[in-house]
Amino acid sequence: MSRDGRSDKYKWIALSNTTLSMTMATIDASIVIISMPAIFRGIHLNPLAPGNITYLLWMIIGYLLVQSVLVVTLGRLGDMFGRVRIYNLGFVVFTLASVALSLDPLTGSSGALWLIMWRFAQAFGGAMLMANSAAILTDAFPAHQRGMALGVNQIAGISGQFVGLLLGGVLAAWDWRSVFWINVPIGLFGTVWAYRSLREIATTRRASIDWIGNVTFAVGLSALLVGITYGIRPYGGHATGWTNPWVLAGLIGGACVLALFCVLETKIAEPMFQMSLFRIRAFAMGNLASLLGAIARGGLQFMLVIWLAGIWLPLHGYDFAQTPLWAGIYMLPLTAGFLVAGPVSGTLSDRYGPRPFATAGLLVAACCFVGLMLLPVAFPYWAFALLIFGNGIGSGLFASPNTSAIMSSVPARHRGSASGMRSTFQNSGMSLSIGIFFSLMIAGLASSLPRTLTVGLTSQGVPASVAAQVSHLPPVSTLFAALLGYNPIQNLLGPTGALTRLPAQHAAVLTGNQFFPHLISAPFHHGLVIVFTAAAIMSVTGALVSLLRGKRFYWDDTAPGAGAGRATPAGGAVRPDPATAPAAATAPARSPAPPLPPNGVSRTPAGSPSAAGPPSTPARSSAAPGTSARSSSAAPGTSARSSPAATPGTPARPASEAPARHFRT
């Protein structure tokens, strides 16, 4: 057993199982991207036909949208009914949905709808896993090891997004149904293992379900994210749909409903999410930095796959049908960077604090975005590999300490909903990133691609009227064709019949590996400069936010006895949990704790009794600079112990109800 009573064996079991579930859930978010051509061929549907773009968008982005909307609710349910119980159920739902996906009996649009609906169910199971895995680990590991544990867990999840690109290409080449079969044995093993090995550590507290909060949050976030998704689609004579009244209604209406949600949550006795947690600076700044980092990183994999599959790989002799698989292979340095930096930064942040590593990680990522922006389109691979490896290092440096700082900064009874909110910020940032990156890229292409395409096509004998018609088609079709491994020119000219009327030599040039990459290189690079500039700005802004998180700060709800308190090894002071102030105020000699200030440190007058126990020798806090608060704790090098019975008039409480304490070191 460890010093705080946690089982050393159990915490490693929890880490292994939750890492398996996170890897499985995030692999499935990206595995479909690369296998999309095989999936749509299997159900006999062309995803790039004008009427079918909607199916394509929902297959790619729908999984993220469902998870973004549901993780907070499922994290709150974990706080109420047991995190392990909700987590285990997530394994079951995810596995059953994978079975249903692999057995799709329909074809055409009906087959696509079957896949989309069961992808929603699969995302529901994945949200159960993601919402509670970080909370389970935070419960199982002591504070001085959480950075390492959460680092391993988070990096496994993030790297799963890129492993999915490679795995999807390999499996789709064999059978499109195997993309979903692969989850079944993993899910069955993980389900049995979780039910047999995981146990509840945190005390659950039954409460009424906040229906108003759940509904307003789901409606607001759904409207916002769906509006962002449909903003990628062309509308009227515009290359994107940001002027579509329905898109504007979704964006504005969703933002207003979310604002209403925030107001209502402060009025409800037992809210879905404790908005007061945002007064804890470590929690608020950590989540904001996570959102900005996710926006910077979320669309990166799509841009890199399009760059590799649409331009670089064909120029190096790869057939368009093979480029998605090889794009996943050539992006392995990015995954390697995550795997190297994540556990190391988590372990170091346990010793030195999360702020320097999280901040430095985003700055490293920003530098690598600038480097990618300066690369020529036909780059030397060693330079590309070095830059994406550095980007992986930066993201790994950031993810582990930031997650540990967020999860350690909240009381144990709110860890489920806090984990859900953290996942919501991350998933929403990725969805927002896809919308922003694609829109910026499309805007960059729309300004120069039509003229370039018209000149290139007419030079190979395509009639001017056909070339003009094709060149003014929305660039999103060209991007998706490159992303999915379709021959872009063949996809554009096929419906017109122009290829069949051209001389064989000209048709071969147009559909060969060299024509499209050379044609699109200049317009695509213009779009890349815009995209990576935005990503670098987001990363630098996130680094500044991370710098404002303050010193290392964590709640510790474990207590050797009711009302016991102790000083941290680094000299930080024990502080009472404002959430427990009503219980502490039952003692006649005590007054209720004041509200939690913005920096997360409550003030206690020097020498006055704290909620953690009776008065003792005051020790100066190491809280934020300028804070003159003092707390009652033992002198340096000694431990202070007190018994509830020693304080007259204070009723004894079980250890599970002992006041929470938070440390700043």
Describe the fold and architecture.
Helix content is 65%, strand content 2%. The strands form two sheets. It has a three-stranded antiparallel beta sheet with strand order 1-5-2. It is globular and about 75 Å long. The N terminus and C terminus are likely disordered.
Protein structure class: mainly alpha
Gyration radius, in Å: 27 Å
Whole-number mean pLDDT: 77
| Total strand segments | 5
Count of DSSP helices? 23
Shape estimate: globular
Instruction: Give the distance, in angstroms, between the N- and C-terminal Cα atoms.
Output: 25 Å
> How is the biggest beta sheet arranged?
3 strands, antiparallel
Instruction: Give me the side-by-side strand order of the main sheet.
Output: 1-5-2
Q: Give the uncertain stretches in residue-range form.
A: 1-5, 559-665
Sequence of secondary-structure elements: HHHHHHHHHHHHHHHHHHHHHHEEHEEE
Give the key terms.
2% strand; 3-stranded antiparallel beta sheet; disordered C terminus; 65% helix; mainly alpha; 5 strands; two-stranded antiparallel ribbon
Give a topology summary:
Elements: H1 8-42, H2 53-81, H3 83-102, H4 108-140, H5 146-174, H6 178-181, H7 183-197, H8 211-230, H9 245-265, H10 281-298, H11 300-315, H12 323-330, H13 332-352, H14 355-374, H15 381-408, H16 415-459, H17 464-471, H18 475-484, H19 488-493, H20 498-501, H21 504-510, H22 515-547, E1 553-556, E2 575-576, H23 581-584, E3 618-620, E4 630-632, E5 661-664
